[in-house]
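Appendix B, Record 12. Input sequence as logged:
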Amino acid sequence: QVQLVESGGGLVQSGGSLRLSCAASGSTLDYYTVGWFRQAPGKEREEVACISVTDGHKFYPDSLEGRFTTARDNDKHTVNLQMNSLNHEAPGVYYCEAKEEPDCGNEYTYWGQGTQVTVSS
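Logged structural output:
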């Protein structure tokens, strides 16, 4: 059983940046595809980034390309999500999810409790 823990959420001004981190408690994320999801109030859950386990392939929706970046921290065996130019669409609870399969999207096997992101104008 893999337990995921997100950190790094908080309050940021519009246009600012936040860096989220996802760690596997007692384990490593080196062998998992990791997806980041946003659940905003009144909106559908959205995958905002993903990094594949096999070739490091990354996925971002078109609307976030260039502003969100996900990467592995090989020293800490975690996965980060760097979010820049945060705007009114950014607020919500951000979750990291993991699976052994290499494809982004679809179902993931493990997920964390989420971390809240709030953007002030």
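The radius of gyration is 13 Å.
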